[in-house]
Amino acid sequence: LKYEAELKSLALPYYFLRNGDVEKAIDFARDAVTLGARIGSALAECQGLVFEGSVATMQGKYERAIACNEAAVGAARHSGIPYLVGFALCTLGTSYLQVSAGLQDKAADAHEEALRTLNKPMGKAMAASNLSEVGYCALELGHDEQAGELFANALESKSATMYLYRPRLLLGAATVAMRKGDLQEAGKYIDSADEFVEERGMAHMRPFVALTRGDFYFQANANAEAMSAYCDAIELAGPMRFLPSIWRANAALSHICFSSGS
Q1: In 10 A of CB 153, how many CB atoms?
Q2: What does the pLDDT read at residue 115?
Q3: What is the structure's pLDDT at 144?
Q4: N or C: which end of the chain has fewer CB within 10 A?
């Protein structure tokens, strides 16, 4: 039962998420949480909760995201495993920040503690995922230099989640490059992310690639290409109900239409 719970908490949910079957992925994660709690597997319980919390954030179900991630932190602390504590704190901080700027301090506290776990025994086991979450929140707060360092460190680290999070890290690095005005470097990161995603059929990452490519074209004053990329993002995000991605793409399209007088 221990191995069944662990398999259902990470490998199977990510397999179905990669295929775009979000509901099936969540079903496995919830099974893992239930089974993990029953047999005393904090690892399975925490991983299942973090997975559902992360997906809830991507779908804009923020109350559910916070509930799952807070429960994950509790399970992780109970386990005493440093990398699990950091893993759960990172996704919790992200969900706080997505809900409201008023929770910014709580997000910062969660992420500061999460970064400290990296220096503990086995703390770097989930380094790619942890640094990714903290990096994106740094971007959200306008701390571009810190975000760039976090993404670079994560891309160079060896951890259990380095391949799962590689496209997300590359897109984060692309955003940092765009904010610095280095479109050539940004384009390389986006192309690398796109290639990685397509080679591995990571359906859940395709909307984010399209969104970032839309940002790239918009900054390059290529409005037609930007609008096409944003429309792709909406189409790709729709079946998985990644509502925040759809909202952001629609907002970008409206901005382009308004600014161009279309």
Answers
A1: 15
A2: 85
A3: 95
A4: C
